[in-house]
């Protein structure tokens, strides 16, 4: 009887599990387990518990990925603009017709102004090597204008490479073995949840202290044992004062510096005047807070300095991250498991991308245009154009410059040029796609094969196709291959290969392949302890950490080519760690500093289209300190105006967001249309390059703040 009863109960069918990687622009590159339903759709998305860095934890926005892949607003068919640019009128066309029109427009641009009139513009909407970087192969084959990527990494990578000679460091999993984790210049609760996974593990298992250094009372600061909220762009001053205290109070490891650093005596002399009182006046911190921080890291040998991408958003960011890394060297933290300084493992991955990007076809005489200055490029700025002709055609993949790029009004003005042809390959009708002439629907990461690496950890990971895409959408690689055929370069090296063939070529130096990696899911390529901690010497030719910086002669992964040269006020960069007063300081007309920090439910402009993310974020707001609000007669929810020389936008006031008086924080890259006047926060951000190798200072803006009396 019991057997017959059991047979009458329907047995639930468990979904199959697929294995892949989060593709989005985040150093975590999380390994994922995905429920594959019997109807061919995905279900729940989870962090892979078997991956030692992801450790089963992912951010909420990726966990809700089914909401994005099956979103009713997803682009499904190619579309051609009808009527005025940006007017919102479209007609459906077929793939062949769309690609034919794009190729014809590119050939016309080339005929009128030369090959450099076409600019392939892309970035990290996917971090997949094949789908992101294949556009470079087309660029080189056609001798189109080059793309100097400057919007994200440059100042931080420059400063860390100046310090250590390479972009690598102590195993990020060692945070769990630390006695003090210093999370500096990043808000991982919102942006890199795995950092918190390992830091909290150290707290639970070892009683470790978590220090968080940020510019406002972020969700990560709220979880800290010691939270330090300083003024934007003053991190270098804090680091210098902590080093001053280390020398003063005997925390400095002189024996370590004598063996591994270049000029500790010169640094100590330089820091004599960089007292806690000096730093307090610059940072807004109290002397007691600075002393407490220096004492904690000075007396804790296993101090792990996790340095984030917030350093890239300031005009003095390269100097600031160099100073923070120098603190780890003064203390000798590198010698200990769970100690040292880490920003990125970018240099440890042995990937051969020559075929993928078409390295054999590179012409050094082709101009390189700065990604961050797209507004200036498209509006004819002679310096931004490197003194050459106009850009009259764009192919855009994996990025949304009409929302993301600085100087947004210039960007929009450029996109509205009647003589500019724009093709956008996208998943949604973004602010950029809305200004295009042709819009092509793109696959999502679960619908194609690709290869990933985790700059925030040490894994090379495979992301195989798990579900079939809609019949009418296409991969990035498909678009590049089809355009190559129409543009007469399909016979050049690297064309005609599938994703899997490209992955095999990229993995060849590691001795792996698509098939082999699919079996093991990822490769752990973390260097051994001595190499990772630079105990065999730092990566400079003399094996020494650089306290004394040569900002114009040191190689870096993102150093611009000779045709671009040094950028920004590089002559003003200090030789030793210091507070470099290169930030956009307040003035009488613009007494506030504005930072445009990431939101928890968005990732740059991605996820801003999903209902759950928008509901969690609410609406575009600006955080205002209560003292400033009271002085200006601003109440919670009031509409306020932020203005500077670049423009004016209106936002709702959020009183008491945790920044210091005189500092404003606007979280999240909302679609421009979500703002009261249809213009986003990047109306207010500048595109002047950061010294010495470029960058975009999104958190470094002076503005005025007034209550909108008309509203």
Tags for this entry?
711 residues; alpha/beta; N-terminal domain of TfIIb; Rossmann fold; Dimethylsulfoxide Reductase, domain 2; 4 domains; 6-stranded mixed β-sheet; 24 helices; 25 strands; 29% helix; disordered N terminus; Asp_de-COase-like_dom_sf; Prok_Mopterin_Oxidored; iron-sulfur cluster binding; YoaE_C
Q: What does this protein look like?
A:
The protein is of the alpha/beta class. Helix content is 29%, strand content 17%. The protein contains 24 helices and 25 strands.
Count of spatially separate domains:
4
Measured by DSSP, the beta-strand proportion falls in 15-25%
Name of the CATH architecture of the largest domain:
3-Layer(aba) Sandwich
Number of strands: 25
Topology:
Elements: H1 2-7, E1 16-21, E2 31-36, E3 42-47, H2 60-63, H3 65-69, E4 79-82, E5 89-92, H4 95-113, E6 118-122, H5 129-142, E7 146-148, H6 154-164, E8 180-184, H7 188-191, H8 193-206, E9 209-214, E10 226-229, H9 235-249, H10 254-260, H11 264-271, H12 276-283, H13 287-298, E11 303-307, H14 317-330, E12 340-342, H15 354-357, E13 368-370, H16 374-378, E14 393-397, H17 401-404, H18 408-415, E15 421-426, E16 438-441, E17 450-453, E18 459-463, H19 476-486, H20 499-507, H21 514-520, E19 522-524, H22 529-532, E20 592-595, H23 611-617, E21 621-624, H24 626-632, E22 639-644, E23 647-655, E24 663-665, E25 701-707
Parallel strand pairs: 6-14, 7-13, 8-9, 8-11, 9-10, 11-12, 14-15, 15-16, 20-24, 21-23
Antiparallel strand pairs: 1-2, 2-3, 4-5, 4-16, 17-18, 18-19, 20-25, 22-23, 22-25
């Amino acid at each position: 009887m019991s057997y017959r009863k059991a047979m009458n109960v329907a047995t639930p069918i468990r979904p199959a599990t697929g294995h892949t990687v989060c593709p989005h622009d985040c150093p975590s590159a999380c390994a994922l387990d995905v429920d594959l339903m019997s109807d061919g759709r995905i279900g729940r998305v989870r962090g892979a518990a078997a991956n030692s860095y992801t450790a089963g934890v992912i951010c909420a926005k990726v966990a809700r990925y089914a909401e994005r892949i099956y979103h009713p607003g997803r682009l499904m068919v190619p579309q051609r603009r009808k009527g005025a640019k940006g007017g919102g009128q479209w007609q459906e066309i077929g793939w062949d017709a769309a690609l034919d029109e794009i190729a014809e427009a590119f050939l016309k641009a080339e005929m009128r102004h030369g090959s450099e009139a076409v600019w392939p513009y892309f970035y990290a909407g996917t971090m997949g090597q094949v789908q992101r970087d294949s556009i470079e192969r087309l660029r080189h084959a056609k001798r189109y204008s080059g793309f100097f990527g400057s919007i994200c990494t440059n100042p931080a990578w420059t400063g860390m490479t100046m310090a250590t000679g390479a972009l690598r460091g102590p195993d990020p999993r060692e945070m769990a073995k630390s006695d003090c984790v210093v999370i500096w210049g990043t808000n991982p609760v919102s942006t890199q949840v795995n950092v918190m996974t390992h830091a909290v593990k150290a707290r639970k298992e070892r009683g470790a202290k978590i220090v968080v250094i940020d510019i406002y009372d972020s969700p990560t600061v709220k979880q800290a044992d010691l939270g330090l909220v300083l003024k934007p762009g003053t991190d270098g001053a804090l680091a210098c004062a902590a080093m001053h205290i280390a020398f003063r109070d005997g925390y400095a490891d002189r024996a370590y510096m004598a063996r591994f650093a270049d000029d500790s005596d010169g640094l100590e002399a330089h820091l004599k005047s960089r007292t806690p009182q000096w730093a307090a006046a610059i940072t807004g911190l109290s002397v007691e807070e600075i002393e407490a921080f220096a004492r904690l890291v000075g007396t804790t040998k296993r101090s792990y300095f996790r340095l984030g991408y917030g350093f890239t958003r300031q005009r003095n960011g390269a100097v600031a991250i160099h100073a923070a890394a120098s603190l780890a060297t003064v203390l000798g933290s590198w010698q200990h498991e769970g100690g040292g300084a880490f920003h990125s493992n970018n240099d440890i991955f042995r990937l051969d991308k020559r075929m993928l990007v078409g390295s054999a076809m590179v012409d050094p005489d082709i101009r390189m245009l700065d990604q961050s200055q797209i507004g200036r490029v498209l509006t004819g700025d002679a310096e931004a154009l490197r003194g050459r002709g106009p850009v009259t055609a764009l192919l855009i993949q994996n990025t949304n410059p009409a929302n993301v790029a600085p100087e947004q009004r210039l960007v929009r003005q450029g996109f509205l040029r009647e003589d500019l042809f724009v093709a956008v390959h996208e998943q949604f009708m973004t602010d950029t796609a809305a200004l295009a002439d042709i819009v092509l629907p793109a696959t999502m990461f679960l619908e194609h094969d690709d290869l990933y690496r985790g700059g925030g950890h040490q894994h090379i990971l495979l992301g195989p196709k798990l579900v079939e895409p809609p019949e009418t959408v296409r991969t990035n690689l498909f678009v590049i291959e089809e355009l190559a055929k129409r543009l007469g370069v399909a016979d050049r090296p690297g064309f005609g290969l599938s994703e899997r063939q490209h992955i095999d070529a990229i993995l060849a130096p590691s001795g792996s392949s698509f098939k082999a990696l699919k079996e093991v899911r990822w490769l752990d390529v973390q260097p051994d302890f001595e190499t990772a901690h630079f105990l065999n010497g730092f990566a400079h030719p003399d094996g020494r950490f650089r306290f004394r910086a040569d900002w114009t002669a040191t190689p870096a992964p993102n150093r611009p080519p000779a045709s671009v040269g040094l950028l920004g006020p590089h002559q003003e960069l200090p030789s030793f760690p210091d507070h470099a007063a290169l930030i956009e300081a307040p003035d009488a007309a613009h007494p506030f500093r504005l930072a445009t920090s990431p939101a928890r439910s968005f990732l740059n402009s991605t996820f801003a289209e999903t209902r759950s993310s928008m509901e969690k974020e609410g609406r575009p707001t600006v955080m205002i300190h209560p003292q400033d609000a009271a002085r200006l007669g601003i109440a919670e929810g009031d509409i306020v105006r932020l203005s500077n020389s670049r423009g004016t936008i209106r936002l709702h006031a959020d009183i008491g967001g945790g920044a210091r008086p005189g500092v404003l924080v606007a979280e999240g890259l909302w679609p421009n249309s979500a703002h009261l006047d249809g213009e986003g926060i990047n109306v207010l951000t500048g595109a002047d390059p950061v010294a010495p190798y470029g960058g975009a200072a999104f958190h470094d803006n002076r503005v005025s703040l007034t209550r909108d009396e008309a509203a």
